[in-house]
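Journal club prep, notes for RB
We'll compare a predicted complex against what the paper describes. Inputs for the S-adenosylmethionine case:
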Amino acid sequence: MTVLEAIQKSTEFLGKKGVESPRLQTELLLAHVLAMPRMKLYLNFERSLAPGEVDALREFLRRRSQREPLQHITGSTSFCGHEISVNRNVLVPRPETELLAECGWQFLAAVPAPPATALDFGTGSGCIAIALAAKCPTAALTALDLSALALGVARENAARSGVAERIEFLQSDGFAELAPGPKGVRRQFDLFISNPPYIPSQEIPTLQPEVRDFDPTGALDGGEDGLAFYRLIASQAGAHLKPGGKLMMEFGDGQADAIREILEREKWVVEAVKEDYSHRARIVIARL
Ligand SMILES: C[S@@+](CC[C@H](N)C(=O)[O-])C[C@H]1O[C@@H](n2cnc3c(N)ncnc32)[C@H](O)[C@@H]1O
């Protein structure tokens, strides 16, 4: 079988299984099997696949047809230019979240009294903390998550990107581990950044199988109306911000107005609501 024949047959197969963008998914899987950039496939249409390559592709197609995410099959994704390993213990980083990270490093880089400090609340794979640490070489980061397994993935990702030394990994249920210690010192940061779980609990069964069955439920479930973490953060993050500090959060479709209300009730000033690539309100920036 040639590369072109493999692409055609596999595209048809994945399409019948209801996988979105089956041609692109096929090309990415085949490029992974052949260890070449996807665009190089186009220069190799007539190349014959070795039996081992056909077997590997067949196995990947089987997994993808069962709606396992492409990133779980290839083992990683790219986030702000960093290779981020993913597995069932962490949310697969989404492209929209790169915009949140960008807002974060633009602010951190301009903090007048370095070293700037930031807390990535619900770090998952560590993608946001890693991007911030890489863009702001003097900043000190804290990457917090409830899941010890997620923190293990985040630590490995940070090491691969060469920024693990500047990130503190903190296992904490919400703000529990940020409480003042025996000497009463409160931990404060210039930036509080978060992409918290924001799917209403009852909507989780209706999500695409790639998300519902493979992203950890703890990374998705935002409580009854999806807003539980915004209420928690709005009521508690202020105590952990330095003067002049900022709160930046990602949120889901249609949640902008409710989140503004939650923040304003807790005396936050909403400075900006930013849209994602599909012009949907996605990021809120606030200060006290
Ligand atoms: C939507 S994911 C975001 C992951 C990553 N920051 C990203 O943007 O791809 C939310 C993260 O919050 C974590 N989380 C859920 N409940 C938490 C809690 N009570 N305390 C701390 N972290 C929590 C989850 O384990 C998950 O890693």
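Talking point for the session: The radius of gyration is 21 Å.
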